[in-house]
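Limitations

Structures in this collection are predictions, not experimental determinations, and the ligand pose is part of the prediction. Treat each record accordingly. The example that follows, with pyridoxal-5'-phosphate as the small molecule, is included so readers can see exactly what is and is not provided: the inputs are given verbatim, and the output is the predicted complex.
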Amino acid sequence: MQAILSAESEGQAILPSPLQRLHHPLLTLYGVELWCKRDDLIHPAISGNKWRKLKYHLLHAKEHGKRHLLSFGGAYSNHIHALAAAGCQSGLRTTGIIRGEYDAVSNSTLRDARRWGMALVFVDRQSYRRRQDPDWLAQFDAPDTLIVPEGGSSPLATPGVAELIGEVPFSPDLWVLPCASGGTLAGLIAGKRDREQILAIAVLKGGGFIADEVCRLHPAAAHIPGWRIALDHHDGGYAKFSPALWQWVQDFSATTDLPLEPIYSGKAMWGLFRELAAGRIATGSKIVFIHTGGMQGLAGLREQGRL
Ligand SMILES: *Cc1c(COP(=O)(O)O)cnc(C)c1O
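Predicted complex:
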């Protein structure tokens, strides 16, 4: 993406992202080795999997003369935040279609997005549900516009995510990551070596649809073995978390010196340790956990008094 970012922002992205070895007494107990791929550190504003997923969308926009990116998200969306920043740095106009009606928006995610020049359009939940319906989308289409699906999850996201695999200087037995729409998981499946396994932790309730979505985004995934989605670590649902989970996350962060938030990375790490405790991961495994970023979400949780 550096090539399409403006000169003053070049070099801001840290690639390859750092790989951090994690030390924790439970890892010794379970006899596994755990590393964290710190994609949260790729870029101060375009973090984690959103950077990976946007890269080829931006290249596509450039190649096809698109000057305007339009996408969808909730009021605290990491994707909306990243897209606004990426558009600002690449000289592309951006529009965010935001779920919910707000007359005075003062949350930090949307404040940043506005500051980076994003036009915000608020739609009611009923309309928002039609975000994949071509008839509804037609009102936003224009020759200079690239419509990016919610979360940046489209087949264009796959190659950018797959690139992270080559940045790790060894072949792990197991990759672990949080998943919601499945776009990041699809990219990882596309890029993994045959022997490598993937455990995706669904951060939402009712994640049965995710496997189908992965196969829609990357049809070859249906025939690639070695990946599974754990559906029972959602802790109540998307963006929900118990005081116990948040306490666990804070303790884990303090022990390992790894910053986490409770919606994606913290919940997935908690899920991984529940899988380890249940004996579902082989002793001796060398594991790489992908920190998908999203640390900007902590500010929103604090503003809402939820932490
Ligand atoms: C969006 C997001 C995810 C979910 O990724 P999907 O590709 O939708 O599965 C995971 N982690 C973070 C930090 C995110 O912002």
